Amino acid sequence: MKICITSSGENLNSDIDPRFGRCNFFIFYDTDTKQYEAVENSWKEASGGAGIQAAQFVIQKGVKKVFTGRVGANAEMVLRKAGIEIVEASGKVDDIIKKY
Fold first, then answer.
1. How much is the pTM?
2. For the chain, where are the alpha helices, taking DSSP H only?
3. In what residue span(s) does the Dinitrogenase iron-molybdenum cofactor biosynthesis domain sit (predicted)?
4. pLDDT, tens digit, for every residue of 58-100?
């Protein structure tokens, strides 16, 4: 299964970023292969619609769960419509990874 964790940095020791649409990085982790990819959030400085654009990007990556502090209403609607589970999280990215 592929999961996404919003992150303040590009490694697994980074803090979970509490903002979905304006997080610094997305960490995509494959629970089967134990591999991860860090992708800088291109929409973090967008004047509007950052959450929706970020949600569409995450959907394209094929994730099943998103771990973050908070998701705005519009992004939440897009993610849920795609069948992605949203899990409220805080702490370190590695805290989530260790559970998988």
1. 0.94
2. 50-60, 73-81, 93-97
3. 13-100
4. 999 999 999 999 999 999 999 999 999 999 999 999 999 998 8
